[in-house]
Amino acid sequence: MKQARVTAESNVQAKSDFLANMSHEIRTPMNGVIGMTGLLMDTDLTPEQRDYAETVRNSGEALLTIINDILDFSKIEAGKLAIDTICHSTCGRLLEQVAEMLAPGGARPRASI
Prior knowledge:
Helix 1 (2-41) runs antiparallel to helix 2 (47-78). It is built from three helices and no strands. The chain is mostly helical.
């Protein structure tokens, strides 16, 4: 029983280490893709090219969010996730932005969190 527990703990640690390393290794080039897309969008582009570049940037940002979530999950499992505190005014503004986005027929501004 003791050996099974040690093996299980070792497997959990190996999985957490893998997730952390994998997330970091993917996040670095993804930041490069997003950054270079931003530079590309600062150049003269046709409307069609700008649309394609925005799609690349948005897709890259979505993937980066997923990667960061995976990294956070591995930190939670390892007991190494730091919880940040935010002031109430920031939290209130965040709630306002969410309400604006979800309001029927309302403006859908992009939240800056």
